[in-house]
């Protein structure tokens, strides 16, 4: 097999699965593992993929910090946030994850009913400073500055006592095989804990998150209740969500 053919197959596999395991790929194609690893090194040097122990992942673009991301409030995020906010019922306990999309939920929360918002994001709590009917519970812990959320043992201990009615989970990517994912191990662990304790877990999915994978899996798609997404998502992406048994609210 020619080098160009091998590399094309490698890229196809990474796009399909969100990763490539060198040993398994070599066995599948009856190649030496050294050959595959050499191809991966060359492709990484060309900026085509990201080398990791045992294989490769898609290139993850450098993520801007939270302040920069917050300045970009697209119409899509506003629509998703408004739909999520409309789901909240009087008296419910709602856990709002961090992130710029979930900030749009905070801005759209109803002001005519009483409910409790729990969050481990100081920026989300700040959005609710002047909200007339929302009781706000802020979870503390070590601040993960990229996403502006509390993580670690202190946050986990506080979260363990809460049973939210709805959790609006923030994820950086949604993939049929790798589920909901993000970029940090501790952040993923906290998200997973909150979801396990919540009666329902919903994810707001902007178009660029669908069919993508980040380095750390939060949980499989089947573990969530549903996804709120744009009507502009492709039919194949809708099928991916449907196959996982997820409810879909399109706005």
TrEMBL record:
<dbReference type="InterPro" id="IPR014036">
    <property type="entry name" value="DeoR-like_C"/>
</dbReference>
<dbReference type="InterPro" id="IPR036390">
    <property type="entry name" value="WH_DNA-bd_sf"/>
</dbReference>
<keyword id="KW-0804">Transcription</keyword>
<dbReference type="InterPro" id="IPR037171">
    <property type="entry name" value="NagB/RpiA_transferase-like"/>
</dbReference>
<protein>
    <submittedName>
        <fullName>DeoR/GlpR transcriptional regulator</fullName>
    </submittedName>
</protein>
<keyword id="KW-0805">Transcription regulation</keyword>
<keyword id="KW-0678">Repressor</keyword>
<feature type="domain" description="HTH deoR-type">
    <location>
        <begin position="3"/>
        <end position="58"/>
    </location>
</feature>
<dbReference type="InterPro" id="IPR050313">
    <property type="entry name" value="Carb_Metab_HTH_regulators"/>
</dbReference>
<dbReference type="Pfam" id="PF08220">
    <property type="entry name" value="HTH_DeoR"/>
</dbReference>
<keyword id="KW-0238">DNA-binding</keyword>
<dbReference type="InterPro" id="IPR018356">
    <property type="entry name" value="Tscrpt_reg_HTH_DeoR_CS"/>
</dbReference>
<dbReference type="Pfam" id="PF00455">
    <property type="entry name" value="DeoRC"/>
</dbReference>
<dbReference type="GO" id="GO:0003677">
    <property type="term" value="F:DNA binding"/>
</dbReference>
<dbReference type="InterPro" id="IPR001034">
    <property type="entry name" value="DeoR_HTH"/>
</dbReference>
<dbReference type="GO" id="GO:0003700">
    <property type="term" value="F:DNA-binding transcription factor activity"/>
</dbReference>
